[in-house]
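seq as requested:
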Amino acid sequence: MSRIPAKRTTEAGPLLKLMYRIAGRRYGAVPAPMAVVAHHPKLLRASVLHELLAEKASKRLPANVRELAVYRVATSIGCSWCVDFGTMLQLHEGLDIDRLKHIDDYADSPAFSRPERLALAYADAMTGAQVTVTDEQVAELEAEFGRDGVVELTYQIGLENSRARVNSALGIVDQGFTSGDACRVPLP
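struct tokens:
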């Protein structure tokens, strides 16, 4: 259970009930971070709007590169909720989730392509206690993905750092999105 309990539907006003209904249809269940942040309605609205806009805008990178980098941040920080939800998103993108078991060995694993390894190394460089990104690393990413791709990758990695740290601090843990117990969202 999270450190701040989720706001129950019975405590929700009409707008929050609508948001819960939409989220439930989209994901199979109301995401726990949403239900916790619901205690602060203005931040909830800002968060939902930001997430929708970031999702809509992030279309320059291949989905596998973006999702792997975000997943790497989640595993590095240790956000079990983010790992669970991120795995479900990759599954729905039609990506190979079996290779996620080898994420810690990405640098040498044949399961990951060169562009994926570059993005994963960048995620590592952005996620530690100190940011260790180098000029050479950014130049290599720019050559691979273009400037807009580097900006998108940086933004998504930074956004996942924020999500994972907030969820971890609030004690929000995995919800069963990939186990099939909590969420039975049909594959596209």
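The chain has two domains: 11-57, 63-169.
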